[in-house]
Write a structure and sequence with these properties.
- By secondary structure, the chain is an all-beta fold.
- The protein is built from one helix and 17 strands.
- Strand 10 and strand 11 form a beta hairpin.
- The protein binds calcium ion (4 copies).
- The site of one calcium ion (CA) has 8 residues, from loops.
């Protein structure tokens, strides 16, 4: 769930993921958009727009982030994970970008962009985050968490995060569109959570925090948080 002004009317709007929603198909998932102001209880069946997962088991809405302007048009956009998507590889996962504006209900097949996970069981899109503009080009950028595996294939828990520069359009492979930030071998599931960290070193470049919930550095499955100072990675 996340909140930002997607339609540019000055009032924040609510985007809520329901990753097991069966509206389109079993566990296809969906995201529900409710334009603000929201002043009382309501049923999500009365949401202003619903974007459904494309096919059975996609788990669309496993993560959502709104607020970054990835296409640079001045409106906040949405990034939506579908971590069980199996387009060409089973459970490779995917992340969608949907441009802000007045949405109409339909399938996520109509998204602005779709970024496909890199290998079977990668489960890309378990987490997503808008990051702000890393390179000062006027387009906000995004990060997609990949729950498992190295770039060589599934190995049960390395995980990684991929930083993708905006704008994005059409369908592409996540690792070809972006820059891979790998966890260490001990850093189990480094892509479990990705989040904007603001600008913690005050160099003017937004930074990235990721969580590695099975990290063993401090003890078995003690977990760890990584902070990537993005201005120092270039
Ligand atoms: Ca609004
Ligand atoms: Ca936008
Ligand atoms: Ca940028
Ligand atoms: Ca920084």
């Amino acid at each position: 769930m996340d909140v930002a002004d997607l339609n540019g009317d000055g009032v924040d709007d609510l985007l809520l993921g329901a990753y097991q929603c069966p509206r389109a198909a079993t566990h296809a998932g969906a995201v529900f958009l409710v334009y603000g102001p929201i002043t009382s209880s309501m049923y999500l069946a009365d949401a202003d727009a619903v974007l459904e997962g494309e096919v059975e088991m996609d788990h669309a809405g496993s993560s959502v982030d709104v607020g970054s302007d990835i296409d640079g048009d001045g409106l906040a956009d949405a990034v939506i994970g579908a971590y069980y998507a199996s387009d060409e590889l089973d459970y490779a996962g995917a992340a969608y970008v949907v441009s802000g504006g007045e949405w109409t209900s339909g399938s996520l097949s109509g998204a602005t962009a779709k970024l496909l996970g890199p290998f079977a069981s990668a489960r890309a899109g378990f987490s997503v985050a808008g990051l702000g503009d890393l390179h000062g080009d006027g387009y906000d950028d995004l990060a997609v968490g990949v729950l498992s595996g190295t770039s060589d294939g599934f190995d049960g828990g390395w995980g990684m995060s991929v930083v993708v520069p905006g704008p994005v359009a059409g369908t592409s492979y996540l690792v070809e569109a972006g820059e891979v930030l790998l966890g260490s071998k001990e850093a189990g599931s480094q892509g479990h959570t990705v989040s904007s960290a603001g600008d913690v070193d005050a160099d003017g470049v937004p930074d990235l925090a990721t969580a590695s919930y099975q990290n063993d550095t401090g003890g078995t499955n003690a977990g760890a948080t990584y902070l990537f100072l993005m201005g120092q990675l270039d």
